[in-house]
Amino acid sequence: MRGLYALPPGADFAAGFVRGLLARMQGSPPEALAAVTVWCNSGHTLRAIESALRGSGPLLLPRLRLIAELGSGAGFAPPAPPLARQLDLAQLVARALTGDATGQSVPTLAASLSALMAEMQAEGLGPDALERIDAGAHAAHWQQALAFLRIAAGFHLHGPPVDREAQQRAAAERLASDWQQGLNLPEGPVIVAGSTGSHGATRLFMQAVAALPQGAVVLPGYTPMPEGAAAAMHEDHPQARFAPLVAACGEPALWDDTPAPDPARNALVALALRPAPVTDQWVAEGPSLGDLPAATGRMTLIEADSPAAEANALATLIRGAVHENRPVTLIAADRSLTRRVAAALDRWGIIPDDSAGVPLPLTAAGLFLRHVAELPGQPFGIDSLLVLLKHPLTATGAGDAARRSHLLHSRELELHLRRHGPAFPDGAALRAWGERPARGTGEASPERAAWAGMIAAALDVTLPLIADPAPLPLTERAARHRRIAETWAAGAGTPDASRLYAEAAGEKARAVLDYLALHAPRGPAMTARDFARLLADQLQAQAVRMDVAAHPLVRIRGPREARTEATGLVILGGLNEGGWPQALDPDPWLSRPMREAAGLTLPERRIGLAAHDFQIAIAAPQVVLSRARRNDEAETIPSRWLNRLVNLLGGLPGQGGPQALAAMRARGQLWLDRARAVEAPAQADLAPLAPRPSPRPPAPALRELSVTAVQTLIRDPYAIYARQVLGLSPLDPLRPEPDAAERGNVLHAIIQRFLTPPPSPQDPPQALQERLLAAADEVLAAQVPWPTSRLFWRARIGGIAAQLCRDEHARLQQGAPLAVETQRRLAVAGLDFSLTAKPDRIDRLHDGTAVIYDYKSGTPATRPQILQFDKQLPLTAAMAERGAFGEQMRVADLRYIRLGGEGETRSHGWDAEMQATWDQFVELISAYLRGEYGFTARRAMERMTHGSDYDHLSRHGEWSEADPPQPQEVGHG
Fold this sequence. Notes:
A 6-stranded parallel sheet has the order 3-2-4-5-1-6. The protein has a 6-stranded parallel sheet with strand order 7-14-13-8-12-9. By secondary structure, it is α/β, with parallel strands linked by helices. Helices cover 47% and strands 11% of the residues. The chain is elongated. It contains 38 helices and 24 strands. The longest helix is centred in the C-terminal third of the chain and has 28 residues, at 787-814.
């Protein structure tokens, strides 16, 4: 047992390794196995080998070690915490970025720099390696990056090894040197299992082990390469990482005689993955592959139209395997796909065994900490407050009863803030709400007031701490973040009693916060954005294994686990470029030629490792390949390896390649069709399409209506029915925006402030203009919390102020304002019904007549629109003539004053055609009150594309405006 060995792709690595080990130990005493030391590449491999050993009967187990722990027994001090070393580098990065206005993230750059330093240590490269790079041969920004790197490397790589990678490299070099000289040789056999030697330190150790008298290295998924192909291999080839080992130790022998599950398929895949310069071998060697339909008989290709369709097809396939009592493993690099599949399996109550667990940032505790970290630097609006109030960890420190009360009050507060604001609530606003009389009682609720006081106190703590997003000492940033999080989680209780740190996710969240606080003194001052990025990175490094009863037959694994888990039915999901293989992260420090000159590995190394995982996984006994043709944005590109396989099959008609590919796709289409059948509702479950509604409630349906709602009654009667009869009102937006409606409200408030009390006829236009602009400043300061909008709207009113005030001066010479935003109602004779109005302005002229004004922030209605739909002004005039605003008076004119454009005034007169509006309205409302008309949905919309707040209620879309309305008696018993 000496030298280099291998197992082929598709072989159960753990089982094959144990069979080969036990075969070599045959005839040795039982205790000899205990003298063997097995170094494993990962914890997954170690556990799989241990499980296979325990399943082989009563044995004394060998010593199982991890290669990553190579430096731990070499006499070094415990390795430095990675975060501490990263923060040391962040100090350098922050100083280098002083004065930089590009907005680069210090934690992100420091993390990539730390990874580069770790790679240099693993490859045995010191600061002098950077001197091999000819700076003059590269662009100016690369020269600047290189100059900084030389400083950082001299700082970080100097002195004794303190990082795990440096200690591992030093231990490997020491062992290799000692063993080569015959010193400190191990007492028993030493075996390295499952590693590809992708890192320099690991490769050095593997070469040293292979040279031991009782040393062996067992490679996973090795495929011999023809001489020409081996010479043409680049870093992105699946066998490229083995080339240095093979060159140093010779061609590996088979460790176990058990053949691969499907040698014919292995040959097909190996040829498909030949290096690009020798793909001419497809033509030369393709005919030797034999019958391709037989080689691909246990392969299925699923090409779905979307990621959702892919996930549903895979979930259906997994459900079929469970029904047949077959184990199935989904291997994917795209975690969004695995989460989709897990969600789809929930339909059948199947919980997969997901080795990756749930990323800590996606747990309740992780999301809560991320929300809090993102608060600084942005306005604290209603949505920000509700994110905190409604989070499941908020106010959990005082028990379940307090939490239920908290949710009830949060709902009441949300409705109040949506309707009444303010857009940016603070402690004072919360206390004022808590002291308001409760609905229906007329008295303040002590319980609600106490809760509002608690939330107000939390806001009093939070708002000052998030007010400054500028750089602060990292210890202060971390302390502020933790104080805010614990304040909201505690509620009326304590942080330790809350659920913030409960269960596995909470414990890991606390550990991350403690870890940050411990090493924060070593970091630079950080902005709020950079701290949020740093926290997110630390959370992302953790995962939580949920304590659930996973199904014993269903597993979800990552690509690296294909070496030990690709057995039975294996699904390779998400085979698109950017998914598997995943896109390479850009290196901000070294370009590709610079890395090559320094002796570092090329970026394509990661592609080669992913390709090796693919080659192992596709060699499973039965395999399903899947991809989505489109994602949410555009068409996808098939994974390069799948593309090669498809092209090779399509180019070998003599061996039945096209027929084999068609059969693979047909088997995949079967699962796509089954998934669609599962998704599609049965015919009996399909609800019939709704007709166009025209409900007729019991008469009288209405008691009152405003003049502004009459237009809605004409255009969309169903909206009046929903609002007035059913009492349904749309929720106000969660995040108030300075939109056109809000601008109109503010401009009207400015005019109301300007006219209250009415100005004097003796005031010159200039004085009126000053008064108008002063009113604008007061209203904008009080009602518009958006600084940019305040400036724009102030400029808008300022641009038309001169014209408005010249016209206002002329109006004041003719009469005086009689009513400004004054609410009045008028009972309609003969009907149990009242019409209400709140006109913008009514002026009484010196001759006793009245002029009705309406201020318009948008485009005023035309005369045809007024006569047919927009009845507000003529109905207000009719109410004035009937004494709704005092004594009866004759109307002289209807006018629009535009609060936009040029600030002009438009007159529409008060002729017989306009005066007929009242009789037309009485006739219309009488028909509705008697139940003769149904409240038809979207009866006469101004544009077909215009939406209604109640389209979802009327089920618009199941019917169209071309469908006749269907009258329906509602509420009659």
